[in-house]
Write a structure and sequence with these properties.
The complex is a heterodimer of chains A (281) and B (364). Chain A has 281 residues and is of the alpha/beta class. Chain A contains nine helices and 15 strands. In chain A, the strands form three sheets. In chain A, strands 10-9-8-7-11-12-15 form a seven-stranded mixed sheet. The mean pLDDT of chain A is 94. Chain B has 364 residues and is an alpha+beta fold. The complex binds flavin-adenine dinucleotide, iron/sulfur cluster and FE2/S2 (inorganic) cluster.
Chain lengths: 281, 364
Amino acid sequence: MSNLLIPDSAIVREVFHENDDTSTFTLQFTDAQKRLEYTFRPGQFNMLSIFGVGEAPISISSSHDNRENFTHTIRHVGSLTRMFGKLKVGDLLGVRGPYGNGWPFEQAQGKNLLIVAGGIGLAPLRPAIYYILRQRELFGKVELLYGAKNPGEMLFRHEYSKWAAHLSMLLTVDDAAGFDWNHNQGLVTGLFDKMESVPENTVVLSCGPEIMMKHVTKGLLARGFQSGQLYVSLERKMHCGVKKCGRCQVGSKFVCHDGPVFAYDVLENEPAEIIGVLGRE
Amino acid sequence: MLQEDHPLVKSAGTVSLPAAELKEFVAALMQKFPVIAPILKGREYVFAQLEDAAQLADDYQPTILPAKKVLQQPLETVFSFVRQEAFAEDGKCTSLGEERICFVDHGAAVQKKVLFGVRPCDVNSFNVLDEVFCKDLPDPFYCQSRQETLIVAQNCVKPCRSGFCYYQQTGPGLQRGYDLLLTELDNAYLVEAGSDAGRELLALHPFAAAAPEMSLARDELLAATSRRLPKHILTRNLAELLEENVDHPVWEDLQRRCLGCGTCTMVCPTCFCYNVYDKLDLGLESGVRQREWDSCKLMEFSQVALGHNFRKGRQARAQWRIYHKLLYQQRQFGKTGCVGCGRCIYSCMVNIDLTDVASTLGGE
Ligand SMILES: Cc1cc2nc3c(=O)[nH]c(=O)nc-3n(C[C@H](O)[C@H](O)[C@H](O)COP(=O)(O)OP(=O)(O)OC[C@H]3O[C@@H](n4cnc5c(N)ncnc54)[C@H](O)[C@@H]3O)c2cc1C
Ligand code: SF4
Ligand code: FES
């Protein structure tokens, strides 16, 4: 029986500093065979290891079309993710995956898409955006709402002009002081008054801090969206990624296996005491 | 070929063992395999590898830690790694110019063994853990160990100190999941084989034929044990009761009393959660990744980066354990997460008792 908990090795090919505490790493498997075999769906994640430090779940942030290498965009918040911040081109790290379900493109085909992201939550949505751009004709209207603390915190800024040619974008920040900023200010939910998206025939993809997603779901339900149209990607502590360590459970679901993407109607009736703020209060 | 449960096959694997010969049979098993069995340690029983058949505690109260510790060990090394040139040849290595890292898989070597004297509740816990560890992407540690472990189970002819297995349909008589099954009768054990591997074990000792009355005696004893169990749990509508009573005052009461010590999860035979961490040696060139049993009752369990915790209050965690045992585990794996062994009740310092909680919810 092969030991599914032993990672493959990958080498850091490129490091891009998105902002003060977040970097995007381009990785490539050292094993040529593995490079050939490895595929993933937008919204899936890998377990990344620095040997001797630990392992954490990180979403894949690149296009699934690129079979040579892949990227991870990591915010350096804790003991392990700060060590990721020190990685240089040529360093080795461990990768297992891909795990999780990914965004529901089967349900979204032929429909309008509304994407709502906050902060680092744009990372798992970037592969979805690439997916849409690559086959734009499969979807109706596509709109992206993105909020961050300040303009400097916004991820993937150099790509926005390319995206904006194919989808509508609304950006907002909590605080623009010290920046030349001509977009919106305030919470991402404040953009609902400005967006063009309507409930009819629309699928919503959302990722960000859970309290943000709570307000997003509330705001959209109030605007006539149904909970079954709303998909959220959850973050939980994970120690295995393969439905064994039990750490990521929300009610009877395993976030690593049944998620991280959930239709909101699966969560909304579960008690908040047990599954967190997205549950029924 | 006859089905496993065909009466002819079954009777062929049913024999009698005079009580005085039990340890002889154990000694014969020890000639062939490591035998792990309950022994007395201080005032409590534990599963340990026998060095002498005389150590076997044939009439024992549930062990402190469940038998699952043999299959999912409290602490396991997942793999070890080293960053230098010369390294074990069985390792898998990656080289990149200067850098080279090699792994040794610790999930590979598993020895065949016998787990002797396991109670029905513990055997049923394996059936639950099989669903967790051996479906989809099988866990090499648990599943290989499981495959290589022969189960000699022992029916409970006396009630234990806090069990309620009868109500969870997990005891006191075992239905399936054993290679051999012992039932202690007056002066002899009824020994039943439940698998080909079990029938092979019968060749290790000159057993006597089982008299037909022995099966009857077994059924009577087990029925009597069922009636005399110290605890019962309300099972009718329990799922609905839990679903409807998330805000019941009983949870507030649990929160007040629970110390959050995690003992109840450590002694639970169906708890499977684990923590993972890396350890580096002093030279920083090699290290291990280990995993260790973990408890949802401890504060750090659900904490993610930036200190956010999805189950922060003790109430949330006290409630979570019981919901997981009595509701979610059933939904996740189609088998109840509570096998009725009563260990969590017996070992809780503040007498938190999930059968009481169920009764309170049911208005009893
Ligand atoms: C499916 C999934 C996908 C994910 N994708 C991504 C992704 O694409 N990019 C990404 O960056 N992350 C992602 N995450 C989150 C990422 O896994 C965690 O940030 C990471 O596990 C943290 O590990 P750590 O060891 O660095 O932090 P830990 O050290 O384990 O955790 C941080 C701990 O340090 C303390 N701490 C650290 N910083 C602070 C602070 N500022 N204030 C107070 N306390 C603090 C807290 O006690 C906290 O518990 C994802 C998570 C999941 C589940
Ligand atoms: S229920 Fe009892 S054993 Fe479990 S954590 Fe609370 S005090 Fe400890
Ligand atoms: S991460 Fe281990 S069970 Fe989901």
